[in-house]
Specification:
Elements: H1 2-45, H2 58-65, H3 74-82, E1 87-92, E2 95-98, H4 105-118, E3 125-129, E4 148-149, E5 159-160, H5 184-197, E6 204-212, H6 219-227, E7 232-237, H7 259-262, E8 265-270, H8 280-284, E9 289-293, E10 312-314, H9 321-330, H10 332-349, H11 352-369, E11 387-390, H12 420-425, H13 438-473, H14 482-526, H15 531-546, H16 551-579, H17 583-625
Parallel strand pairs: 4-5, 6-7, 6-8, 8-9, 9-10
Antiparallel strand pairs: 1-2, 1-3, 2-11
Helix pairs in contact: 4-11, 13-14, 14-15, 15-16
Protein name: Protein O-glucosyltransferase 1
Family: Belongs to the glycosyltransferase 90 family.
Transmembrane segments: 6-25, 504-525, 554-575
């Protein structure tokens, strides 16, 4: 009986244990059941798109051109041109023409690159291409005019095209992207390399965001980061509109972070900017899970990216963001699967050949809607005649003439050094004003100052010591008068001052030069300033000055020098923080100001060249007419 009771007791405990485990597990599953069901249904209903002949985005083109299925008349296009809703382009006999004015030359150049690449396959046509950030044809506008824009919402009739940023003219972010994010194909390689460096298991299980406050939609994430920094790392950076810390929610603006460094985190946030975000496609390449806020703003490839299949959709007010972050942290395998599907889609269906293919199919289908024959120099009231942009004599696209400022790439002064050694080499080169970099001048001035300090430091004791020795050794010597004695003593003392002053002068100058060269060289090479650089510089200097004593002197000198260098670095970096701007930050600020000034001069030069070119064309046409 006792054995039976004991068996029943054990069975009872076992049943309670199973119930507890099962109930606890089902409770956890129940908490996330709604989200898990959404993911399962989305994946089940998802049909991967066909890559051949841009079929992946065919539906987008059909929907965008549907409002113009009854045809695009010359009157409609003239209306779009006269309202200045974009830049007027013509394609006639495999040649590309553009009106004189282009609001953003680099953006027009990015658009023109793709058109010129496929122009041999295109029929005659003309179109208005908007290179502003915002769409131009709201649905309430009458008449409904055809304008190509890179982004829109469902409230607009604009026809979407692949943005110029796939080639050039993207948003410039100083100092990390002074000329924009750069070519899409090159950025793909860079981010793919970073993703390989940070596989899913090595990534931090934390949400991450860096960006400027272009929209108040981003505020809740910044505030959540301050409340729960273990869950979210989100900060505002500066933009052109930044005036005070009020623009970054009461905190100093954060340092800009390259996209490659975003790959360290598992969860990355994408917000709209003025329109659709240019960073969206880049984030996927990190192999991180993308949290996409809001569904209103679209680019041509957005519709094929499905919520829960390729990314996590977040409500515009971010009311569900904490719940979603907790879900992905507790369901790591599910999160990784979504991130991998998103990355693979971008890798497979958003290559440069897909961009060119979309442009070609879009323009071919658009041209079919034109109800009139396009010809050069069409007379339109209030509209300037289009002028040649480039002439193609071969099957491949020719580069756009420099006179229009539509260059392949950017001006040489816009190209930043891409490696640490290139930055170091720039220390020994003069700039356009024939001046050496600030760091080089700092080393030179510090060395000169050190030599003066050393000269005085060694000279004064040498002077006093020589004077004392003279008095002690020559006290009984007879002179004709007191003046002779004083002059003789002064000559001996000055020789002592110069002798010992020179001895200390070159030592201190060499010490300062070596220390600053090593410290600044490391900072320039790594593009950042740390306490470790001061310590290494001190150790190198100390070891060089004690190496004549052998191995013991070498080790002792490096230890003492490292301690002194670290102490000096702590003091200097502390003073820099008190002043509110470090040496490196001041340098980058000056570079940014110089960059902005050069950009203005460059744009002004382009305008002058365009005006000169147009006048030349007018003169030639007038002569031909005669």
């Amino acid at each position: 009986m006792r054995c039976l009771q004991l068996s029943l007791g054990i069975l009872h405990v076992f049943i309670l244990f199973l119930f507890t485990v099962c109930w606890g597990g089902s409770s956890a599953d129940a908490r996330w059941k709604k989200i898990l069901v959404q993911i399962d249904e989305a994946v089940k209903n998802y049909r991967p798109c066909v890559k051949d002949n841009c079929e992946c985005y065919q539906r987008v083109r059909e929907q965008d051109l549907a409002p113009f299925q009854n045809g695009i008349s010359e009157v409609l296009l003239s209306e779009a041109i006269s309202r200045k809703l974009g830049t007027h382009y013509q394609i006639i006999e495999k040649k590309l023409y553009r009106e004189h004015d282009c609001m953003f030359p680099a953006r027009c150049s990015g658009v023109e690159h793709f058109i010129l690449e496929i122009i041999q396959n295109l029929p005659d046509m003309e179109m208005v291409i908007n290179v502003r950030d915002y769409p131009q044809v709201p649905k309430f506008m009458k008449p409904r005019v055809p304008v190509l824009s890179f982004s829109k919402t469902s409230e607009y009739y604009d026809i979407m095209y692949p943005a110029w940023t796939f080639w050039e003219g993207g948003p410039a972010v100083w100092p990390i992207y002074p000329t924009g994010l750069g070519r899409w194909d090159l950025m793909r390689e860079s981010l793919q390399s970073s993703a390989e460096k940070w596989p899913w298991k090595k990534k931090k299980s934390k949400a991450y965001f860096r960006g400027s406050r272009t929209s108040a939609e981003r505020d809740p994430l910044i505030l959540l980061s301050r409340e729960n920094p273990d869950l979210v790392d989100a900060e505002y950076t500066k933009n052109q509109a930044w005036k005070s810390e009020k623009d970054t929610l009461g905190r100093p603006p954060a340092t800009e972070v390259p996209l490659a460094d975003h790959c360290k985190f598992k969860y990355l946030f994408n917000f709209r900017g003025v329109a659709a975000s240019f960073r969206f496609k880049h984030l996927f390449l990190c192999g991180s899970l993308i949290f996409h806020v809001g569904e209103d703003w679209q680019e041509f490839f957005y519709p094929q990216l499905k919520p829960w299949v390729h990314y996590i959709p977040v409500q515009s007010d971010l009311s569900n963001v904490r719940e979603l972050l907790e879900f992905v942290r507790e369901n790591d395998d599910v999160a990784q699967s979504i991130s991998e599907r998103g990355r693979q889609f971008i890798m497979d269906h958003l290559q440069m050949e897909d961009i060119s293919c979309y442009w070609e199919q879009l323009l071919k289908e658009y041209s079919k809607a034109l109800t009139y024959k396009v010809s050069a120099n069409m007379e339109r009231p209030g509209v300037r005649t289009a002028r040649p942009l480039t002439v193609l004599g071969e099957e491949c696209a020719a580069p756009v003439p420099e006179v229009l400022g539509a260059l392949e790439g950017s001006p040489p002064w816009l190209q930043p050094p891409v490696s640490g050694w290139e930055r170091v080499r720039q220390l020994f080169r003069r700039n356009e004003q024939k001046a050496y970099p600030e760091e080089t001048m700092y080393i030179t001035k510090a060395t000169f100052t050190g030599s003066l300090v050393g000269f005085v430091y060694g000279g004064i004791p040498g002077y006093l010591n020589a004077k004392k020795q003279y008095i002690e050794q020559c006290g009984g010597e007879l002179y004709h008068n007191r003046l002779d004695a004083v002059q003789s003593m002064q000559r001996i003392a000055m020789r002592g001052f110069i002798r010992y002053g020179w001895r200390w002068s070159w030592r201190v100058a060499a010490f300062v030069a070596i220390f600053n060269t090593v410290n600044i060289g490391l900072s320039v090479y790594r593009d950042k300033s740390t306490l470790g650089h001061y310590t290494i510089a001190g150790a190198c200097t100390g070891s060089l000055f004690r190496m004549h004593l052998g191995l013991r002197g070498l080790i002792g000198g490096s230890v003492i020098g490292g301690l002194l260098g670290g102490s000096l670095g702590t003091l200097l970096m502390g003073l820099q923080k008190v002043t509110g701007e470090t040496f490196l930050e001041r340098k980058k600020r000056k570079q940014s100001e110089l960059h902005a000034l050069k950009m203005e001069k460059w744009k002004a030069t382009l305008d002058i060249h365009e005006d000169s070119s147009e006048e030349t064309d007018d003169v030639l046409q007038e002569k031909d007419g005669r």
